[in-house]
Structures are given as structure tokens and as C-alpha cells.
Design the sequence.
């Protein structure tokens, strides 16, 4: 039996990109948490995020890998997520922290007349 590795690098790179995209979407969901800190909204958004990730993973694997779930595809998604967290994720979290503190700063501005301190 022959084992072909011809397309595995392409599939791995696609799943790495998918993992990075999942990390970006999760940071977007966390930004919504900061702006609207309702517990029920958090459960709803986490459920929708999980459903979106499952749908995205299976549709990408169906398109790229004929629906086969392999260990390197799951590893690729994990590597992509970690690469996102170590690179763009840190920048996005700083921006999200600033945007999350913005309503508090706006309230302070109305009271004291000062915005950036």
C-alpha cells in the first residue's frame, strides 16, 4: 500500500490559517464581552462561536481534504491559534482593553471634563 503525502502540506497550511482565523473571531467575541458584560450574552456568544468553529472546520476539511479528519489537521488548527495568540493576538488584546475602558473614560469625561489621564 502506498501512502501519498503530496497534498498534506497544503492541507496543513490551510488548517493553520483556519486556526488563526478562529483566534481572531474569538478575540472579537471577547471584545463584545467587554462592551456588554451580561452573563447570558456570554453563554450565547460562546455557543455561537463553538458552532461556527465546528461548521468552519468541517466545511474547510470537506473542501480541502475530502472530509477526512486527520491528526495533522487538528494540530494545524492548534498551531494556527497559538501563532495568532503569540503575534496579532497581543496587539488585538491591547486594542480591546482600550476599547473596553472607553465607556468608563467617557463617563469620567462627562463628570470631570478630562479624558486621557
Sequence:
Amino acid at each position: 500500500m502506498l501512502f501519498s503525502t503530496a497534498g498534506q502540506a497544503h492541507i496543513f497550511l490551510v488548517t493553520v490559517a483556519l486556526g488563526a482565523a478562529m483566534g481572531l473571531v474569538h478575540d472579537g467575541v471577547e471584545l463584545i464581552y467587554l462592551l456588554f458584560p451580561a452573563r447570558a450574552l456570554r453563554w450565547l456568544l460562546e455557543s455561537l462561536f463553538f458552532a461556527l468553529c465546528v461548521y468552519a472546520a468541517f466545511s474547510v476539511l470537506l473542501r480541502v481534504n475530502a472530509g477526512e479528519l486527520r491528526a495533522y489537521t487538528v494540530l494545524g488548527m492548534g498551531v494556527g491559534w497559538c501563532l495568532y495568540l503569540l503575534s496579532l493576538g497581543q496587539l488585538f488584546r491591547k486594542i480591546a482593553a482600550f476599547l473596553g475602558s472607553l465607556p468608563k473614560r467617557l463617563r469620567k469625561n462627562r463628570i470631570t471634563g478630562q479624558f486621557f489621564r
About this structure: The CA atoms of residues 16 and 76 lie 5 Å apart. The chain has one domain: 10-110. The chain is about 80% helix and 0% strand. The radius of gyration is 19 Å.
